[in-house]
Amino acid sequence: MPFETSQPLRFGDCDLTGIAYHPAYFSMLVEVNRAMFASFGVSWEEMMLERNLGMPVLKMDIGFEKPARFGDVLDFSMHVRRIGNSSLDLETFARVKGEVIWSVRQRIVLTSTEDHRSRPWPDDVRAGLETYMDPPA
Ligand SMILES: CC(C)(COP(=O)(O)OP(=O)(O)OC[C@H]1O[C@@H](n2cnc3c(N)ncnc32)[C@H](O)[C@@H]1OP(=O)(O)O)[C@@H](O)C(=O)NCCC(=O)NCCSC(=O)c1ccc(O)cc1
């Protein structure tokens, strides 16, 4: 079962002709990542400020299939494809009215904000991520 959330495409996310400008999609994606962690009770504020952990992206593979327009609502489905020792593979689909507009595969790594080296996923975070585990077919 993927994590699901929606975001409207705002005026500032679009170019002069009213279609989405792709850098805005990256900010939306970060918000989806953050919201997924919050959904299982682990806020990024806690991760970063109390546990001294960060989650940089190591790799992204993104494909844009159709334009989205000012006023559209993007429905996101985020699948956890693999949880490694410190890495995490996510695949996310952004849909408008059921049609895929873009999709992205991300590899994220858990790091210490002190030395910026990898750290294993804590058990509670791993358990939360497993909620959305959906390995590729
Ligand atoms: C992530 C790193 C710290 C990893 O360094 P190390 O501690 O030496 O890593 P390791 O060799 O232990 O590898 C860690 C894991 O990554 C995996 N890994 C390492 N390199 C790779 C590559 N090149 N490809 C795929 N996977 C990899 C590796 O297989 C390990 O997986 P597990 O087995 O599951 O543990 C280092 O590669 C790095 O700093 N990379 C740059 C990250 C970066 O700057 N990203 C740019 C975007 S900024 C960003 O996304 C962001 C910024 C601020 C935020 O608050 C949030 C997000």
Question: Explain this structure to me?
Answer:
It comes from Martelella mediterranea DSM 17316. Keywords: Hydrolase. This is 4-hydroxybenzoyl-CoA thioesterase. With 137 residues, this protein is of the alpha+beta class. The protein has a single domain, classed as Thiol Ester Dehydrase, Chain A. The chain is built from three helices and seven strands, in the order βααββββββα. It has helices spanning 22-39, 44-50, 123-130; strands spanning 3-8, 53-54, 57-64, 73-83, 87-96, 99-109, 111-112. Strands 1-4-5-6-3 form a five-stranded antiparallel beta sheet. The protein is globular. The mean pLDDT is 97. Bound molecules: 4-hydroxybenzoyl coenzyme A.
